[in-house]
Amino acid sequence: MTVDTLGVGLVSVGWMGRLHSRAYRALPDHFPELGVRPRLVVAADPLPAARDQAVGRLGYERAVADFHEVLADPAVDVVSICSPNFLHREMAVAAAQAGKPFWIEKPMGRYASDSRAIHEAVERAGLVTSVGFNYRHAPAVQRARELVRSGRLGRITNVRGSLLADYSSDPDAPLTWRFERERAGSGVLGDLLSHGLDLAQYLVGRIAGVTALAETFIESRPRPGAGIVDRSAAAPGEHGPVENEDYAALLFRFEGGAVGTMDSSRVMRGPHAEYTLEVYGTRGSVRWDFQRLNELQVALDGQEVDGYVTHLVAPGDGHFARFQPGAGTAMGYDDLKTIEAAQFVASVLRGEQLAPSVADGLAAASIVEAAEASLVDGAWHDVARVDGRLTTDAAAPVL
């Protein structure tokens, strides 16, 4: 790595891999003070069409089939891991052993045991990392966190969250790896609730105990035909069992005394990506919905209007000013990933953990682990404490 060039390697050229690539390319425009121009060196994917896309569309200098070639390339300074869940542990541990800082999507592993192995490998290597908890970076969430952590809402009493989606609502959608316990681990617990649980801890504090219920509503799906690898393609034919949950609901207690509820579905008819978080205190509350990314509902004691007012995010909220000049002109999902890329790159350049870390990824996985134990016996379970470079309670990094 030179002063102004950062060599990037990508593992898996799917939708998220393309998004990571665009985020790296956007850094000189939105975060010029980082002083780096990412160089897209090499991408790995087993599919020839994906490798062609990496070079022809995304701008990588070359593409390979084996991810080990990415890790072995001396021109690669950082690695993005955007592969399916069941490959994360092998790839992330290998990246840590190769001394390559990496940005990995969540869930970090199929199970908490996968996430612990990744965390331990990173701690041994002394690397900085990033985990794709992108909703943290929404300016509305940043404003909500300021209100919570400054005490403006008073003593926090309860949190309510919901992550409702329809991406698996078609019963004729194929039985891909996402529905297999061995390759995906849990269903919505890891895929969606890990996001909501991270947000709850980021705003309020550590979740210490949990009880849960879950259900699988579409119990079988058609086995996929040749070449079908994603969750959206239709695949009529022989059916196989769905091995993880379509729906889950949690009750939890925060270490500071507040309580919370959160539920999630991947088969809900109606909501497309209704990801909400509400925080209630003795002096007010805030509500945020991902589908209205640039708005925050705020109710505070003493405000002129009784009830909720809509705060449109504006310069001064998070990194909004880097993308738009004023309230009412919206940021988008890709912008959140650009902020995430900036935090990762800044972490690497400074040797300081600024981005959401693998310890944060393990913290979310530990809640899921406790929830899955509760599904077996119906009891409350303590959440294992994580030692490491947690950023949940850290001040928002200055980039």
UniProtKB/TrEMBL annotation:
Start and end of every Gfo/Idh/MocA-like oxidoreductase N-terminal domain?
7-133
- On whether Repeat is a keyword of this UniProt record, the answer is no
What are the residue boundaries of the GFO/IDH/MocA-like oxidoreductase domain, all occurrences included? 141-287
Please give the PANTHER family that the UniProt record associates with this protein: BCDNA.GH03377
Where does this protein come from, organism-wise? Curtobacterium oceanosedimentum
What start and end residues bound the annotated signal peptide? none
**Source taxon at top rank:** Bacteria
Q: What is this protein called?
A: Myo-inositol 2-dehydrogenase
According to the entry, what is the taxonomic lineage of the organism? Bacteria, Bacillati, Actinomycetota, Actinomycetes, Micrococcales
Q: Which residues cross the membrane?
A: none
Keywords, comma-separated and alphabetical = NAD, Oxidoreductase
Coiled-coil spans in chain:
none
